[in-house]
Task: structure prediction
Amino acid sequence: MNSAIIFGLLIALMLTGMPISIALGLTVLSFLFVMTSVPIEAVALKLFTGIESFEIMAVPFFILAGNFLTHGGVARRMIAFASSMIGHWYGGLGLAAVVACALFAAISGSSPATVVAIGSILLPAMVKHGYPKRFGAGVIATSGALGILIPPSIVMVLVAVATGGSVALDPEGKRVLSASVAQLFMAGVLPGLILATMLGMTTFYRAWKNNYPRMPKASWLEAVRAFRDSVWGLLLIFIVLGGIYTGAFTPTEAAAMSAVYAFVVAVFVYRDMKLTDVPKVLLASANMSAMILYIITNAVLFSFLMTSEQIPQAMTAWIKDSGIGWVEFLLVVNVLLLLAGNVMEPSSIVLITAPILFPIAVSLGINPIHLGILMTVNMEVGLCHPPVGLNLYVASGIARMGITELTIATWPWLVTMLIFSPWSRTSRKCRFGCHGCSECCDEPYRSR
Amino acid sequence: MFLRILDRLEEILIASLIAAATLVIFAAVVQRYALGVPFLYQLVYHINLTWAQELCVYMFVWMAKFGAAYGVRTGIHVGVDVAVNMLEPGPRKKVVLFGLLCGALFTFVVGTMGAKFVIELYPTDQVSPDMEMPRWIIFLCVPLGSYLMCFRFLQVAWAFWRTGELPHHDPGHVEGVVESPAAARDVAR
Result:
């Protein structure tokens, strides 16, 4: 009953279009005030301590690092590198778009920005080369979402933050720790590469069938030059992953190091940015991070309410009693997340749903890392499927195509993503060989 | 005039906080590794940076509270606007105003709770674990930031009521992107 009131109130407030953070906070306040005797003062403390953790601070650092390198110049270098490698295959520029999107998205950390940066350069080039506009727009709108899955990914940090510290018991009643940022980053690499390959295969197949033009093969010298230009940006991924994997940095430290590195590369190596542009980047990053941190604060309040009303426990018990197996559960979760992906942006969905889903999933024997990757993949699909995928909107802006037309344009890649998803979903064991989890390794990667 | 100064102060504060936090953590990591290098050890061993993490967290919390207020002004706090956008202009205006005023109400309540909390904390001598800074100063960002955010919500609501315009944040904005045929030609060769 209480959970129906809480969720009903939350959804009603959200439908008025108010910021999600405010809707969350207001739900908690009004419920506590009207229905319970929990001292409201406890909330004031939570408002501060909710984000008082060093782990969460990876979010602003990664946003800052991404913003330094979210620049048309970096996009051009990634495109040159990608097309010098695979441009001479069928659908060369299309394949280059997939690779360039994957690389740029991983570095910049923002899907819509990737669609704009890569799309506004590659799309005219593809049209000029004789590709149908639909083809180009479809590739770029879907590939731009890859950034969420390829680490460093802010959504993964949020999954770790949202589930961290909650108590979950597996079917045997043993306590299961939630996935850490490091584990999720390691686990995301392989699915990210596989999904990029699959999107590339779809592109290749359609280009081969329709006999789309190929680029002249880049000379060896050109390829080396393109690599040398792009490698500074790409090193960022290796600094983060390598630093975390070797244990040189904690994820937050790696994020801070990558922010400093991105600053040096953008200002002194690539010189895309003048020193006088730096305050603008700082302000934009602070704006973005504050927004996410504000959602986190209120999501912490919300999960505090959930815990004090025992809702996750009640749901877990209910699912166990009803005899729902993990396959059905995962199917329902996938549909639910895809639907949520239609109306909300990824960080809010993860912060609201993860604390509820985590204990239930664990009680059905699902690996926490697997659940985290599954949520991330769903967020990615949600970004580019109609009616309101953010990538579609941004892509329709640069391609000057309507949403309906663009939806038709994206379907081959969208179907590819949906095919990819069950492969990553129909298992409760971690399949990714991530060196991160206790399923595949004798010695789990050091947890937080 | 006063508003312009407030706007600038807000921007300068959050931009410097994020820059400073990055540098602090960078310095702490560099110092930790410098300790492992013999000839650098002499230079850095007496610098104690154990408080770096704590300082970084507090700087980011301050940034988050004031940045959230700045975000209201830039329209970065997005909600679920599918249903609202389907309404007729008349009712839509009312619903949007309701949303903005709810924002103002929530931040006002939070600000007041935070202020009460800080006032209760003030006479105690609680300090933070590493830097030993008084806790009430650290918590001061909750009332200050929330009241500022409340003010921003009212500001936006007032502007919306008069002009029907909401601040809008463009998630796809990228610097240095040129949609010129020349750039396209370079790639296509």
Observations:
- Residues 430-448 of chain A have pLDDT under 50 and may be disordered.
